[in-house]
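Contributing new records

If you add data, match the layout below exactly. Sequence lines come first and carry their own label; structure lines follow with theirs. Keep one chain per record. Anything else will be rejected by the validation script.
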Amino acid sequence: MQATMTYSEVTVTPTPITAGEKVTVRYDGLLNENGASKVYLHAGVGFKDNWRDVTDIEMQSQSDGSWSAQLRINTTDRFNFCFKDCANNWDNNGGSNWSFEVHNGQMYS
């Protein structure tokens, strides 16, 4: 069963995240409220402030006014992200960013 984790302005699907899966991140937060014409998902993997494989993905505008991007998570390290607009304004969740555990998909009995 595919679940979704929603914070007030961010939705991540599926959750829990399994390494190798494609993940969809939707955003309808501060940058959107301030009229951003483009929003980018700034994402990487790793622990705390030690992000690796950092990338900026241009998000697609959705019919409901939110923004959406997809990416594949190919590691069991934490998935970390925040957002920026084309004027280089950032939404980093009050300095905490957003962070999700990624598991290997192994089931234990």
